[in-house]
Amino acid sequence: MIWSLLVAAGVSAHALHLRGRLAPLARVGAAPGDAAGGDAGPGGPPDGPAYGMLAAPGAMLPGAVRAAALDHARRHDLQVLDLVPADLAVRRALDLAAATDPRRYRADPLGAGPGAGFVTLVRTDLLARAGQPAASLDPGAHAAATARLRRYAARADIAVVPGRTAPGEPACRGRRARLRGQGADPHLAVAGSAAAYAAVASAAVLDPWWGLAAVAAYCAAPYLALAGGPLRPRDLHRTALLRPLLAPRTWRATLADRPTAWERARDAEREEARAFYREELAGPGRFLEPRRPDCPWCGSRSLSRHVTSGDIVQGKPGRFTLERCRDCRHIFQNPRLSAEGLAFYYRDAYDGLGAATAERLFASQTRSYRGRAALAAAHAAPRAWLDVGAGHGHFCRAAAAVLPGTAFDGLDLGAGVEEGARRGWLRRAHRGRFTELPDDLAGRYDLVSMHHYLEHTPDPQAELDAAAKILPAGGHLLLELPDPESMPARLLGRRWIGWLQPQHLHMIPLRNLEEALAARGLRVVARERRAAHQRLDAVCAVAIVLDALAPPPDRPWAPPRRGAHLRRALAATAAAPLFLAAWAADRFALPLLPGGNAYRVLARKDEG
């Protein structure tokens, strides 16, 4: 009985959560007096900014609705307005609720979702800045383009309109492509649904009488999520009543759907990458430098092996060792990757094939970004801030809400920093190595930050030298690093995401960092440990195990294996309860441990 009631409660709670996500959707009706006919297309009154459209094939938007949507966008000064047809099918409506929070969509470009995949109005000047033509796009291309354009927009919204999806179109047509376009793993999406189904089925088998409560809740979930809300799905009754029968068909239709043009282009890109990796992996031994006998931080020769692991992010071949100095406790990769090796293991991690996934990860850290900015704001009033290792500028975009009077610039090696400037997240982009640019940057910034950057660099002390050189007297340096002495690092061992092999070359204890700052005339004025904690340890540990047992089947650096897609789907389904438990641990248990998995330090450069 207890299991059946727990399952029923869980299914119902999830449905109500999705209902709450959809409730704030704005509504746009047909403009009175306008023409009622016409398909989706550009246009509208000439007395406002011009808009282009991204439309799904077969999307039907009557002229009156189009005019009303354009008027809504202009009245609210929106650069992006994603339109949701009121008759959106149940499966797509639930996917929309899972992927897009309308509140965050309006207020936070970092938390934007891909929208409904129907019609998206976009200011033409923004389309030009993003290099995106207005066009009819297939589901994957539409999801990827809409999510990207939202990041360019200062103001955006998502609204329900009386438009109709293509009549007779299967609800799961293009679903796999849409999920991939937003950077999600379709196997994990199916696994979550299958795990819920398995829980309901187990309740019905173990206790047929009380199990009916779980089955009833499962069938009622679409009603709880959607009935009486802003959407009126055309298939609500059928989907709810036949849900136990339709769900397995949905999984199969998602994974076995015919590839879209966007997916075929994506697969062709992966085949090109496969050829590259096949050639590069012919001699991976060249990626490592000779092992050094001494500690790079203090020079001691008293070293011990600390952690050995493979590539825990991408699963590329190779084994990597972190050694620990017994004297100063500094931890470093030994033997260390060469410059060629770093380029190899960074490839497709944050750009290229891994860009969408990395974007989702960075977009989920708004709480942490604002915490960093709040620490600085409590001790300084920076006019010009340089974020070193800025990536696309996610931190700077979030920090601007905390420090609206501060100009944020970014520095990074990759092209992402220039993309950040195009988005408007960075005032200026500097591309290059920080240690090679101090003369050009000296005196231009009163605050420099390095967030989860030092551990990636071959010589952290040289990076600190450069920061001390460019800061004026009274300027501040803000640092955040993973804490190698933290409790999660001890509990999770080599599966702690903070080791991040092979990317992290140095893991610096807090005491060592503070001594290095003091030696450079930088006085620590504030430090945080618990506030710097990031809630991802347990979930990432489960993901690391899952990827080791059933790797994603489309990794181009691994040879194709028969049955890999099925193995991934089954393993992800089995791991779904573990992910749920890990999420709960990250949210409620691990934050209670002493300290945290990271630390922040704010240091001030002394006068003179």
How would you sum up this structure, described in words?
The protein folds into three domains: 24-170, no CATH class; 264-346, no CATH class; 352-605, Vaccinia Virus protein VP39 (Rossmann fold). The chain has helices at residues 2-22, 63-75, 90-99, 102-107, 124-130, 139-152, 175-181, 186-206, 208-226, 236-241, 243-255, 261-280, 339-346, 355-363, 366-377, 394-402, 416-423, 438-441, 460-470, 487-492, 510-519, 537-549, 564-589, and strands spanning 26-27, 51-55, 80-85, 119-123, 135-136, 156-161, 303-309, 320-325, 331-333, 384-388, 407-412, 428-431, 447-451, 476-482, 506-507, 522-528, 598-605. With 608 residues, the protein is α/β, with parallel strands linked by helices. The strands form three sheets. It has a seven-stranded mixed β-sheet, sandwiched between helices. The chain has a six-stranded mixed β-sheet with strand order 1-6-3-4-2-5, sandwiched between helices. Helix 1 (2-22) crosses helix 3 (90-99) and helix 8 crosses helix 23 (564-589). It starts with a helix and ends with a strand. A hairpin with a 5-residue loop joins strand 8 (320-325) and strand 9. The longest helix has 26 residues, at 564-589.
- The CATH superfamily name of the largest domain is Vaccinia Virus protein VP39
CATH class of the largest domain: Alpha Beta
* Number of DSSP helical runs: 23
What strand line-up does the widest sheet have?
A: 12-11-10-13-14-17-16
Q: Portion of residues in helices? A: 40-55%
**Low-confidence sequence ranges:** 32-41
- Give a count of the beta strands, DSSP E runs of length 2 or more: 17
Mean pLDDT: 92
Assign an overall shape.
Answer: globular
Strand content: 5-15%
Terminal-residue CA separation: 73 Å
What characterizes the major β-sheet?
A: 7 strands, mixed
Query: What count of structural domains?
Result: 3
CATH architect. name of the largest domain: 3-Layer(aba) Sandwich
**Could you say which structural class the secondary elements and strand pairing correspond to?**
alpha/beta
The third-level CATH topology of the largest domain is: Rossmann fold
The Cα radius of gyration reads 26 Å
